[in-house]
Every structure is written in structure tokens, then in C-alpha cells.
Amino acid sequence: MQKHDIETASDIDVLIDDFYTKLLAHADMKPFFEHIDVAQHLPHIKQFWRFSLLNEPGYATNVFDKHAHLGAQTKHFEIWVQLFCETIDAHFEGDRAGDAKIRARTLGFTFASKLEHLRNTPNE
């Protein structure tokens, strides 16, 4: 299969659909999705990545706040980043694909760091 860069909303669809198939099959990640309607969740995730990678307007939600209550640990974000980057590499190559991996690593690190800080901060 010839790979190309992430260029269109359809490319984002391929990426996110395959990525979520991997997440939902992963024993450590699947429990995070048991309480949500994934079919309803996916359009929001796709919109986030279209906003992030294709500069498509329309996403204004605070991503961290939507996920802070899930109780994820650093290892979960490491798995998330690994699966995301593997999915990109399976389908795409190019500058935007590289940028997507950098953004995923940044998100994973930021989320893990913020959650660790929240867990270690005494309630006042």
C-alpha cells in the first residue's frame, strides 16, 4: 500500500477509526470506553484532529477537562501514544503525519503530567 500524508477529513476518518479499533481491543484501554457510546464519541475526536491537523474550525472543547475524571495513569497515556503513532505509521507518511505524532506525544505527556499533579496536590 502506498502511503501519503494526512491531507483530508477522510484521512482523519481512516486514522481515528483504525486507532479506536486498536484502543477498544487493548485490555488496558478498553475499560475507559465501556461507559461511553463510542459511535457518538468518534465524531468529536475526528473533529478535534481535523482542527489540530487540517486547521478546520469548529472545535472549542477543553480536551483535558473532558478526560480528567477517567483515572488514567501514565502507562495509559503511553499506550495511547504508542497505538496512535503505530496507526499513523500504518497508513500515512509525510510532514503532517509527523506533526500528528508530535501532537499525540505532547498530549499524552501533558495529560499524564497534569493528572499526576492533580493526584499529588492536597485538597484545600
CATH superfamily: Globins
Low-confidence stretches: none
Distance between the termini: 56 Å
Q: Oligomeric status of the shown chains?
A: single chain
Shape: globular
Judged by helices, strands and strand pairing, the structural class is mainly alpha
CATH class: Mainly Alpha
> What is the average per-residue confidence, as pLDDT, rounded to a whole number?
87
Number of helices: 5
**Tally of extended strands?**
0
Kindly identify the CATH topology: Globin-like
What is the alpha-carbon Rg in Å?
A: 15 Å
Quote the beta fraction. Answer: under 5%
Largest sheet: none
SSE string, helices as H and strands as E: HHHHH
Total discrete domains: 1
What is the CATH-assigned architecture? Orthogonal Bundle
Helix content: 55-70%
Question: Quick recap of the structure?
Answer:
The chain has five helices and no strands. It is mostly helical and 124 residues long.
Characterization of the model:
By secondary structure, this protein is mainly alpha-helical. It has a single domain, classed as Globin-like, CATH 1.10.490.10. It has 5 helices and no strands. Helix 1 crosses helix 2, helix 1 crosses helix 4 and helix 4 packs antiparallel against helix 5. The longest helix has 26 residues. It starts with 8 loop residues before the first helix and ends with a helix. The model has no long low-confidence stretch (mean pLDDT 87).
